[in-house]
Specification:
single chain, 258 residues, alpha/beta, six-stranded mixed sheet, five-stranded parallel sheet, 7 helices, 15 strands
């Protein structure tokens, strides 16, 4: 059972980290794997009433790996802590099967009273990007993504992406090529998608709309001039009227990251 689970942990790292070269390298050089190996006896101690011993093992694990997992937390199968320095997982946090947690992630609580569900629950195959802060006793749905440095304080629906501070929810877009490639690998690295920022999306929409309007206006002037026999009548055509497109939509889209 123990060796079967270890093989599963190593295999999931190979599936999600192209830098992994050999099983020996993963076993000896991946602190995320070491943190999981130490978490399990700590969790067993916690569940069987050896609270101090569980905390002490988790404290040793924190010292050795830089990853702090409370022994009371619940972690599923095939969870990958990638790099993971500075990760903090609270006492009542739950991490579902197949999740990927990057460095600097906090699964923290906002309540100060004991005996309550203070920390978040991550569903299956959730990706939490570097520096993400997920704070509170709510649920992040299956296959959701938490963008890097996002601050999430409310539930995230299954398949959605949360980005920004405070986090904004973006529903998944299945036709994005990057996400299609990521889905073949089973996850999206660092919780990043092609259309993460809704503010940038709004700006792109306005830019595209302005470019389309200028194109239509230029076509109208062309039609008017054609009707007038290619002659400009000063009484009906203002001297400063634009007869060609000058709106540089492509440059503006590059500025907002399209």
């Amino acid at each position: 059972m123990m060796f079967s689970r270890l093989r599963s942990d190593i295999q999931c790292i190979f599936e999600r980290d192209p830098a992994a070269r050999s099983r020996w390298e993963v076993l000896t050089c991946y602190p995320g794997l070491h943190a999981l190996l130490l978490y399990r006896p700590a969790h067993w101690c916690w569940e069987h009433g050896f609270k101090w011993l569980g905390r002490f093992i988790s404290h040793i694990a924190r010292f050795l790996t830089g990853i702090e997992i409370h022994p009371g937390a619940r972690i599923g199968e095939r969870v990958f802590f990638d790099h993971a320095m500075g990760v903090v997982v609270g006492e009542t946090a739950e991490i579902g099967d197949g999740c990927t947690i990057y460095q600097g992630v906090t699964l923290g609580g906002t309540a100060l009273y004991k005996g309550a569900k203070r920390h978040p629950t991550l569903g299956r195959n959730v990706v939490a990007g570097a520096g993400a802060q997920v704070l509170g006793g709510f649920t992040v749905g299956d296959d959701a993504k938490i963008g890097s440095n996002a601050v999430v304080t409310k539930p995230v629906p299954a398949g959605a992406t949360a980005v920004g501070n405070p986090a904004r929810i973006i529903q998944a877009e299945l036709d994005v090529k990057r996400e299609e490639a990521a889905s073949k690998m089973g996850f999206s690295a660092y919780g990043v998608t092609q259309n993460d920022d809704p503010l940038s999306q709004a700006m792109r929409g306005l830019i595209d709309s302005a470019a389309s309007q200028e194109h239509q206006i230029a076509m109208l002037w062309g039609a008017i001039e054609a009707l007038q026999g290619n002659r400009t009548d000063a009484s009906c055509v203002p001297g400063d009227a634009a007869r060609s497109e000058h709106f540089e939509a492509e440059k503006l889209n590059q500025l907002v990251g399209k």
